[in-house]
Design a protein that fits this description.
Length: about 190
């Protein structure tokens, strides 16, 4: 049966958006029914005025359907991607998570698969804690967290907690190379489940 996949991202400088788009492309080419949603960020317009990098994908991101918990109810697999802010998810992603409370009480998301992705500046940035914040949210919703297998991409290691990409101090190191290989391989793994 065709798997229904939803990819939810928050992004300011474009990196989580690019990873979400890459997942979308892979799920589509591997035969899934896939949708992509952006988390509402009331500060995006203002940030794009202040930082050139935040303006680069702004219009493309804003053209994507806004996420709501309700829109994810028919998904078999949900991917959630957030920039790492202070070793956690961004405020916009946290607000989105908090909007699940009506669905939490009824365990409406129980049994769905959840896969986390994030970006952070570098290896000391606490990106794994952001991934775990997404995973812990998933557990509260009764979802099944999907880990990254240790042999996902030969010769490359990723946290078990999800896909993490380092963007550097200026958030301008775009996902490429091993990250894109990991997206493709992880899509295959998720569709095997
Ligand atoms: C408020 C704020 C807090 C941040 N905190 C961290 C952090 O704790 N660790 C880190 O490595 N990077 C941190 N960063 C950098 C972001 O992780 C980086 O801008 C983000 O991964 C880029 O993702 P995006 O291109 O999808 O917006 C922070 C950035 C902002 C604006």
């Amino acid at each position: 049966m065709t798997k229904k996949v939803s990819i939810v991202f928050h992004s300011v400088c474009g990196n989580n958006f690019l990873i979400a788009k890459e997942f979308y492309k892979e799920f589509e080419s591997q035969g899934a029914e896939v949708k992509m949603f952006r988390v509402n960020d009331p500060n995006l317009e203002e940030l794009a005025k202040q930082f050139t990098i935040a303006g680069q994908y702004k219009n493309e991101m804003l053209s994507i359907d806004e996420a709501s918990p309700e829109k994810l109810l028919d998904s078999d697999i949900i991917l959630m991607g957030s920039p790492t802010y202070y070793g956690n998810v961004s405020g916009a992603m946290k607000s989105f998570m908090d909007a699940f409370s009506p669905y939490w009480t009824g365990a409406s998301f129980w049994g769905k698969k959840l896969f986390a992705f994030s970006t952070c500046a570098n290896g000391q940035g606490g990106g794994d804690m952001c991934l775990n914040a997404i995973n812990i949210f998933g557990q509260h919703m009764g979802m099944t967290n999907v880990p990254v297998p240790s042999n996902l991409v030969s010769g490359q290691s990723f946290p078990a907690y999800g896909l993490l990409h380092y963007v550097g101090d200026y958030s301008n190191m775009r996902p490429s190379g091993f990250t894109l290989m990991a997206v493709k391989a992880m899509t295959e793994r998720l569709l095997e489940l």
